[in-house]
Amino acid sequence: MPKNNLLKNKTIIITGANKGIGYEFAKYFLNKNCKLILIGRNKARNDISLKMLIKHSNNKTNIHFETLDISNTKKVDKFFITIFKKYKKIDVLINNAGIYGPKGDFDKIPWKEFKKTLNINLFGSIYFIKKLLPHFKENNYGRIIQLSGGGATSAFPFFSPYSVSKTAIVRFIENISKEVSKYNIALNSIAPGPVNTGMLEEVLKAGPTIVGKRFYEKSVQQKNNGGTNINMIISLAEFLITRKDNKINGRLISAIWDNWKVFDKKINIFKNSEFGTLRRISGKDRKLNIFDK
């Protein structure tokens, strides 16, 4: 685990911070003496989470909690005007806000709900990055952690809005990492693995007819097994945030399946590889050259 002084006094924005993974991030980084700018859509939930954080850490001076829908660009604009006046330097953005959205057969999903999912998961996250990049460039420093997931790496039937949004945001992170690398800015996506949060309860409530029998059964098993240990996700995020260089950039890294603790030992191999990037599988990649011209 990185030393505490690498995090001390860092100013971190966390979206979707009033519950689940976002709340756990907030709790951990607050105890590391970071200044937190926390965002959630539900004020009542925000108030509860704020009280819990203060009680947990006995620290209320390092928390700014904002009720904000990240898909509302006008309100996001106003938010950043306020934030840039209050804070001289933002160091880190953790884009955690996201929803599963509607589930089931694509042709039965209301189009309005499909677009809402993309507006939150994709466009909301992208817009936050757009607002922060000039600030990061000016300071010649910035770290962005984008929460993604399995929906970005393989087909996720009956969850098309979610899967499409998560695939797109991973490619976006990869694109932008190439544009801003000279400014010591690093953007990476994290696949947290199956976490027992409110999103799991959504799946169980929807049932096998809507989400598919196979995924429903996996979700029941996840519920019983406890899901991913949150500390694994936090450790990966901290590893990426506290790096002095930006050699690990534009990647999708799994908290549970990737051996990220060895990246530094093999950094030259890592940098020159396509590890953790979205790519098409050709015939030769699977020794099926018959399918290639």
Low-pLDDT regions: none
- In angstroms, what separates the terminal alpha carbons? 48 Å
Strand content: 5-15%
**Class computed from helices, strands and strand pairing:** alpha/beta
Number of separate strands: 7
Q: Using the 3D structure, state the CATH architecture of the largest domain.
A: 3-Layer(aba) Sandwich
CATH superfamily of the largest domain: NAD(P)-binding Rossmann-like Domain
Element pattern in H and E = EHEHEHEHEHEHHHHEH
- For this structure, the CATH topology of the largest domain is Rossmann fold
Shape summary: globular
> Mean of the pLDDT scores?
94
Query: What Rg is obtained from the alpha carbons, in whole angstroms?
Result: 19 Å
CATH class of the largest domain: Alpha Beta
| Separate helix tally | 10
Q: Which strand order does the major sheet show? A: 3-2-1-4-5-6-7
The tally of structural domains comes to 2
Q: Give the assembly state of these chains.
A: single chain
- Helical content stands at 40-55%
Q: Give a short account of the largest sheet.
A: 7 strands, parallel
